[in-house]
Write a structure and sequence with these properties.
single chain, 396 residues, alpha/beta, D-Maltodextrin-Binding Protein, domain 2, nine-stranded mixed sheet, two-stranded parallel sheet, 44% helix
Length: 396
Amino acid sequence: MEDYEAQEQEFWRKLEEGEMSRSQMLKRSVAAAAGLTVLGSTGAAFAARGAAGAAPPLKGNSISLKELIAEAKKEGHLNTIALPPDWANYGEMMSTFQKKYGLAITNDNPDGSSAQENQAITSLKGDPRAPDVVDVGPSFAVAGAAAGLYGKYFPSEFSTIPRAMKDTRGLWYGDYWGAISIGYNQNLISTPPTTWKDLLKPDYKGKVALNGSPLQSNSAVSGVIAASLANGGSLADVGPGIDFFASLKKSGNFIPVQTTSATVASGQTPISIDWDYNNLAYVTEFPAARWKVTIPADGVYGGYYAQAINAAAPHPWSARLWEEFVYSDQGQLLYLKGFAHPARFNDLANRKKIPSSLLNALPSPALYAKAKFASLGQQSAAKAKIATDWTAKVGA
């Protein structure tokens, strides 16, 4: 337990170093200011049309859970998006929520990207099929807040979410984090890759895949940042990571098939660059693939995802009940059960709420000791650099 607590404390120390970049980036964004004006009016207007005409609360602790559940039941439904059941244990998260509160969930586009989540809020505005909540990468969360896509809400446990992992205006908040890893099918890979440089070997021709495209997917962007760290780049310079994938493509090792649970099960993606919690989940989910996971020692990159509520959510009360569930002790431990480190890990550990069985199922904390975490400014810069150079150097 002490090792994991030390690991989490180091994570937040590193992440806090990027706070000034976050503040400067948000303050100097004229577009963000304009977007927040739109958000205020749109969110307030829609809130007035909540269940039974009541406006949903701004803060979770301003209303009883019983009342929140009652209003959510009047709506009877929750729309989620881009939540693969085997990603961070979202399958169990959703089924537990449904059983606990008697609400149905429609999970649209399970393998969708962060960009597609934000786009769905825009394109489906006013449509009852629109997502009520999203789970996106931090740079996409910042962009969504700036565009006025999200509504303000402070979950009851908001104060126990680390400062470096949330928007203090209540527009979004981190829910879990992980590290980029290399997963591989032992039936198809005879010599395991343990470093980024290993992936350039001719043994892996036509075998290396990313989870998504870095033009749209936060996990893929994170994979490029990790590759950059291993190839002379830095958190502030993702160029070497793009060049690495260009070399990987030129060698024939990098394939255009994007990793999903289906491609892992079928053997289409023998090697997958993905978050540790995804790769670790495949070990037990697909025993026939004999899936193995390593965190490459020459480039260890960590990152988190964030929850946000659609400012025009068709089910605003259910959306808030979902956030209460996600940040409850039960919800946070379900993330940990899926090998993802929950945002409230330190709070849970301090209150001795983490079962030893969950900790014992995780890789050694020493594997995460070298992890680096980019600030929001660095993530946005990496995303912009990839948008400019990726297609020309690597392809779609």
